[in-house]
């Protein structure tokens, strides 16, 4: 799991660097297309029959739409904000999942989890630092991406009942490649050889990170593995400082601590209640 987050952090750093020279949609295209190289191995291991078998077309379509929207928002934010700030805001996803699962899934949420949700929202406000009622537009985009990712996780809960992991990964990656590819004629910038190598690396790193995360959740207990997702803030802080001299402000550290405590409480509370979170988490793709 820690290695998975390291691969994703390296990918995010490349997105941040290339995002100043190429459109977000072009980055999404390379992220999706070349992720097929490592993901092809995962699909080969599980079998192509599972990968192309679809039972819930509507569910896949909804997951694809919110998933692509989430990836676009995160990639745009990475290019215009410090790495650690975007990662910190993304930690609020479990908080939004709980809040949205009530109207969208009809789940019953007790007072303890609602309290954790409210605390998590307070942490988000600390991080985005609204100050005088004015929000940073890019921080808002990162927050919108987090909401879309939460919607994707909710969609995955439903898909997990009828679809295989290989099917969800394959259809999402294929659709993401196709949708971003449609925009390429309007945003394409021809890269030089060095940038082309970096663009390809975005897809390879993302695909490898996804495989590592899948294996981690497959062979480890969710309540043990999931908390290690928070190591992403360490990788993002290190890379942001080394390459861009970025140091997260005090509001980010305070806010992420509040959100992490909220998220961990929600995670362990759901584990104690034996809610079906594991399968959805194994299929997630945030970026």
From TrEMBL:
Domain EamA: 2-128, 140-267
Chief localization: membrane
InterPro entries: EamA_dom, EmrE-like
Membrane topology of the entry: Multi-pass membrane protein
GO cellular component: membrane
Subcellular location(s) of the protein: Membrane
Record-annotated membrane-spanning stretches: 25-44, 64-81, 87-106, 113-132, 138-156, 168-190, 196-217, 224-244, 250-268
Record bears the keyword Nuclease: no
One Pfam family here: EamA
This protein's record includes keyword Transmembrane helix: yes
Keywords per UniProt: Membrane, Transmembrane, Transmembrane helix
PANTHER family, per the entry: ACYL-MALONYL CONDENSING ENZYME-RELATED, SOLUTE CARRIER FAMILY 35 MEMBER G1
Family label: Belongs to the drug/metabolite transporter (DMT) superfamily. 10 TMS drug/metabolite exporter (DME) (TC 2.A.7.3) family.
Record's protein name: DMT family transporter
């Amino acid at each position: 799991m820690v290695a998975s987050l390291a691969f994703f952090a390296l990918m995010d750093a490349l997105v941040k660097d290339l995002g100043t020279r190429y459109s977000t949609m072009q980055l999404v295209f390379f992220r999706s297309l070349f992720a097929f190289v490592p993901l092809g191995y995962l699909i080969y291991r599980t079998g192509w029959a599972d990968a192309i078998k679809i039972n819930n077309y509507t569910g896949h379509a909804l997951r694809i739409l919110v998933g692509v929207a989430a990836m676009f928002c995160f990639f745009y934010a990475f290019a215009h904000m410090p790495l650690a700030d975007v990662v910190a805001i993304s930690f609020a996803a479990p908080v939004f999942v709980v809040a949205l699962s009530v109207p969208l899934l009809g789940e019953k949420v007790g007072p303890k989890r609602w309290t954790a949700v409210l605390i998590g929202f307070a942490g988000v406000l600390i991080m985005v630092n609204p100050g005088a009622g004015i929000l940073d537009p890019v921080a808002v985009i990162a927050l919108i991406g987090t909401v879309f990712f939460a919607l994707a996780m909710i969609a995955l809960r439903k898909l997990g009942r009828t679809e295989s992991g290989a099917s969800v990964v394959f259809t999402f990656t294929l659709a993401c490649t196709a949708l971003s590819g449609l925009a390429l004629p309007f945003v394409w910038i021809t890269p030089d050889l060095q940038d082309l190598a970096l663009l390809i690396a975005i897809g390879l790193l993302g695909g490898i990170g996804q495989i590592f995360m899948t294996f981690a959740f497959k062979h480890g207990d969710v309540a043990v593995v999931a908390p290690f997702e928070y190591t992403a803030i360490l990788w993002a802080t290190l890379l942001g400082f080394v390459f861009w001299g970025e140091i997260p402000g005090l509001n980010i550290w305070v806010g992420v601590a509040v959100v992490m405590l909220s998220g961990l409480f929600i995670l362990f509370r759901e584990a104690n209640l034996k809610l079906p979170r594991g399968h959805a988490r194994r299929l997630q793709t945030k970026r």
